[in-house]
Amino acid sequence: MQAVQFEQSVASILKRDRRYDAQAYLFLKDALDFTLKRAAATNGGQVRHVGGSELLAGFRDHALEQFGPMASTLMHEWGVRRCRDVGEMVFRLIEEQVFGKQESDRIEDFDGDFDLEESLTRPFVPASRTQPSGSATGLQPQGA
Hints:
The protein is an all-alpha fold and 144 residues long. It has a domain at 27-122. It has helices spanning 3-16, 22-41, 52-67, 71-78, 83-95, 116-121. The chain is globular, with a radius of gyration of 20 Å. The N and C termini lie far apart (68 Å).
C-alpha cells in the first residue's frame, strides 16, 4: 500500500477514534513489515499470514529495536498501553481495508500473553544487587 493511501486511512480512523496517535498507526505498519520479514525468514523466504500473538511479539521487538529505553514512553504517549491496544488499531485498519484478515482472526488474539508496558521497560531495568544478610555494604568481614 502506498504511503498516501495509508495516511488517508489513518486520517479517516482518527476522525472516528482518537484513542491512538497517528504515529502509533505508522509504527504498527512498520512493525507488521518487521514481523512479516521475520516470519518469511523462518518459512523459506515465503511470506505468510501472521496471527495476533506473533504480531504482538514483533511489535514489542521492533519497538525495543527502534526506540530502546524510550519505547515504553513513546507507546504511552501514543496511547498504546496494552497488547489489546495493538489489536484495536489492527482491527481499525482492517475496517479501512488496509490490513487483511483471515476468518479465524479475532480481537481476542491481541489480549496478549505478556504485559506490553512491562515488556518494553524490563530490558532496561538494572538487575537488583543482592546483599548478603547482616552486611549493609555487601562486604564480608575477614575470615568469614
